[in-house]
């Protein structure tokens, strides 16, 4: 009985911690980062806003990037482009990669701790379950790294699915930092091109990103559909064996 009480207390502490972490970034986004969202579509004003706040502006941008990863349904592309415009290619890329990787690792750790209960707070359970084949797959490490490298795949959603697998936190942090980097870099280069009024470069980069996104989305759908079909076949075979 005492052991159950200890586990219950630990679970309560962990839940409170999770809520406080999310609340912190939500507050940071609302009170400091809200103007940043308004300026993302107005590059010049956005750059002025970041410059006026200095380090606080960078912190707000990191916070809002992390919230974007938590919510999963908000695309990160516009923030990556804005980062390239406001901070330059190198700094903008590193800031976005750090923010998104940090948020991903936090999500991963909480899902490891609480499972599907935590997933349902921020993400669509059905969409996460579409990636359930990663849980018991001997090639899940390779699959996950491959997924993170391809633009157009729902990387933020994968954070929740990855927490249900046997992947370790260090490896997951690695595939996030490395896998997200190319797409973030491309977007940051595009944002920087807008700042330098090199619109031809921006258009070319955006065209490449869009094509990569479409190809990645098609590949993702085919992979998940194929595994869902295999799971259905296995389920039917198992049922027939039991009936027999």
Cα-atom Rg, whole angstroms? 20 Å
Order of helices and strands: HHHHHHHHHHH
User: Tell me, what's the shape?
Assistant: flat
Strand content: under 5%
How far do the termini sit from each other?
43 Å
| Assembly category | single chain
Mean pLDDT: 75
- Low-confidence spans: 235-240
Count of discrete alpha- or pi-helical segments spanning 4 or more residues: 11
| Counted beta strands | 0
Q: Helicity level, as a percent range?
A: over 70%
Provide the structure class. Answer: mainly alpha
| Biggest sheet features | none
Structural description of this entry:
- By secondary structure, the protein is mainly alpha-helical.
- The protein has helices spanning 2-39, 43-53, 55-71, 77-87, 89-114, 116-122, 125-129, 140-149, 155-162, 169-195, 199-243.
Q: Keywords for this structure?
A:
244 residues, mainly alpha, 11 helices
Entry summary:
Helices cover 84% and strands 0% of the residues.
Q: What's the SSE blueprint?
A:
Layout: H1 2-39, H2 43-53, H3 55-71, H4 77-87, H5 89-114, H6 116-122, H7 125-129, H8 140-149, H9 155-162, H10 169-195, H11 199-243
Helix pairs in contact: 1-2, 1-3, 2-3, 2-4, 3-5, 4-5, 4-10, 5-9, 5-10, 8-10, 10-11
């Amino acid at each position: 009985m005492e052991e159950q009480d200890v586990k219950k207390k630990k679970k309560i502490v962990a839940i409170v911690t999770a809520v406080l972490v999310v609340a912190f970034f939500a507050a940071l986004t609302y009170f400091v980062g809200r103007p940043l969202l308004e300026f993302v579509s107005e590059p010049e004003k956005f750059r002025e806003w970041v410059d006026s706040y200095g380090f606080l502006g960078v912190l707000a941008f990191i916070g809002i990037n992390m919230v974007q990863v938590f919510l999963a349904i908000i695309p990160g592309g516009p923030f990556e482009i804005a980062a390239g415009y406001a901070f330059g290619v190198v700094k903008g890329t590193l800031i976005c990669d750090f923010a998104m990787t940090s948020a991903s690792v936090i999500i991963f750790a909480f899902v490891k701790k609480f499972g599907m209960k935590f997933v349902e707070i921020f993400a669509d359970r059905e969409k996460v379950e579409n990636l359930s084949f990663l849980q018991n797959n001997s090639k899940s490490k390779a699959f996950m790294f491959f997924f993170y490298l391809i633009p157009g795949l729902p990387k933020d959603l994968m954070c929740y699915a990855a927490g249900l697998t046997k992947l370790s936190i260090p490896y997951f942090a690695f595939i996030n930092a490395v896998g997200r980097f190319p797409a973030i870099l491309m977007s940051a280069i595009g944002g920087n091109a807008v700042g330098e009024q090199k619109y031809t470069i921006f258009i070319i980069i955006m065209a490449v990103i869009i094509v990569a996104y479409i190809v990645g989305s098609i590949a993702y759908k085919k992979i998940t559909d194929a595994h869902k079909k295999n799971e259905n076949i296995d389920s039917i075979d198992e049922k027939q064996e039991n009936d027999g």
